[in-house]
Structures are given as structure tokens and as C-alpha cells.
Amino acid sequence: MDLLVLGTAQDGGYPQAGCSDACCRHAWKTRYQRLIASLAFYSRRNCFLIDVTPDFKYQYQLIEKTIKTSPHISGIFITHAHLGHYAGLLEFGLEVMNSDAVPVYVMPKMKSFLENNAPFSQLVSLKNINLVAIEENQPIEMNGIFSITPFQVPHRNEFSETVGYSVQSSSKSVLYIPDIDSWEEWDTDINNMINKHDIAFLDGTFYDKKELKKRDIKDVPHPSILESMKKFSSLDVIDRQKVNFTHLNHTNNVLRINSKERNEVLKQGFKIATDGENISI
């Protein structure tokens, strides 16, 4: 089984709509982009996604290019009801792929949200997707290929719960937490979680709390990378190398190659997730 990083940007992608500031100007000019944060786990044609984004058509193409055939989307696991994490479900509807009962694994509030709000409710009624209820801390066995366990994390839960996922293959384990308000608000020790997993993709939305100029950072709480690196400073070298920062906002300078912020993250022994990275697990 392999892991494919489908995207690493925050919900608006990179560059972001409406932004012509310095952070996005070069990206618009050169047509450089980062797709919205998502992971794929695949074995031959069988492909499972964590989150399905507005960039899904490009990410589907990335999977095709990687496996050299059309993938069979065998299941989708949703973290929460914010734009970048579930809106790609619409691509499975009548107007586009017209899929047949793709399993979509969701927590109770997320399930209710999709069932009771158009246009997503149409995907359910037309049986383009099949909603499968999951429970916190209850492992789901996926045809003997891997198991995946949801766990709740504190985040802005306007419409649904927010979960991270722990994925266990036959040989490696992967931790995925693209969104969390803060590590301190969570009743779980993140350093212990990193220690227990082989690979960790963690919320790196902002490098610091000063980069957001046009919104109050209190309205979009995330642990900054600076705060996370301080929190993870007790980790040894091997555990630091497990950490891949993802879900990067367009204002985050770690997106810029050779930026001092990016170099500082790497200097401290951490990694920055990259679109298209393929990892055998």
C-alpha cells in the first residue's frame, strides 16, 4: 500500500482567490499552485481518500498519473464540514462523474449535515454516495488492507464535528490532523501521538500569528508552526523527522522555496509536506 499526498494548501488553495498581494502574486504569474490538503491511500486501483476538495479533478488526475490507470475510489473519509474538506463531493454527482454509491465515512453530525443540506442531499438521494456512520475511537477495517480510526479534535464546529485520523497498514502508521484550534485545548498529548506513529501530517496553516493582515487571527484559530515547533522541541531527531506540516495558508512563507521561514523549519528537523509525494507504507 502507498500513500499519495494529493494537496497541502489551506481550504482556498494556493494561490488563493481574491489575493493579489506579494504572497500570491508570483504564483499567479508563474501558474505555480498548491492543491488543497488531502491524502490518498492506494493498493493497485483501490484508492481511499481522506477529505475530498474543490481541487478534486486535479487530484484525481494526479492519482491516475501515479498508478497509470483510472483509480477505483473505494472510500472517502471526511474530517469536517469546512470548504476544503468536503466540497469535492459534488464532483461525484449527476453533473460530473455520476458515481455509483461511493462509500463516504462520516461522523454523526457530518452525516446529518450532508443528508439535510442541498446540493449534497441530492448525492445521497440519487445514490451517488453512500454515507457510512463512524464513531470516535472505533477502528474501521478496510478489506484487510488497512484500518483507520477517527478521533475528535477541537476546532470551529459550526456544522459538524472535526476529526483527525490514524491509519494503520501492515507495516506503518500515519497520523493526519489538518485542522485543530490548538494543541493545548486537545485532551491528548500530541507528542505521544507523534511518537506512536511512523508519519504525521499536522496543521501548519500559519507560520506565525502575525502573517494574517486582513482578518483577526482569533477568528481562525490554528497552532502556528512556530508554536508547534516549540511544542515538539522535546522530540528526538527521529520523531521530529516524522512531522510534515500541511494545510498551508497562502500567506505562509514556508510555501516559498528558500524563504527564511521554510529553512528554519527544515533546520529544526521537521518537514513541509509536498504535493504529489508518494510514500510506501
The Rg value, from CA coordinates, equals 18 Å
Strand content: 15-25%
What is the count of structural domains? Answer: 1
What structural category arises from helix and sheet content? alpha/beta
CATH homology superfamily name: Ribonuclease Z/Hydroxyacylglutathione hydrolase-like
Approximate shape = globular
* Tally of individual helices: 9
β-strand number: 14
Specify the biggest β-sheet: 7 strands, mixed
Order of helices and strands: EHEEHEHEHHEEEEEHEHHEHEE
Helix content: 10-25%
Give the CATH topology: Metallo-beta-lactamase, Chain A
Adjacency order of strands in the biggest sheet: 6-5-4-3-2-1-14
Explain what the structure shows.
- With 281 residues, this protein is an alpha/beta fold.
- The protein has one domain: Metallo-beta-lactamase, Chain A (4-Layer Sandwich), CATH 3.60.15.10.
- Helix content is 23%, strand content 24%.
- The protein contains 9 helices and 14 strands.
- The chain has helices spanning 22-30, 56-67, 83-86, 108-116, 120-125, 190-196, 225-231, 237-240, 260-267; strands at 2-7, 38-43, 46-50, 72-77, 102-106, 129-133, 140-142, 146-152, 163-168, 173-177, 199-203, 243-246, 271-272, 278-280.
- The strands form 2 sheets. It has a 7-stranded mixed sheet with strand order 6-5-4-3-2-1-14. A 7-stranded mixed sheet has the order 7-8-9-10-11-12-13, covered by helices on one side.
- Helix 3 links the parallel strand 4 (72-77) and strand 5.
- It is globular.
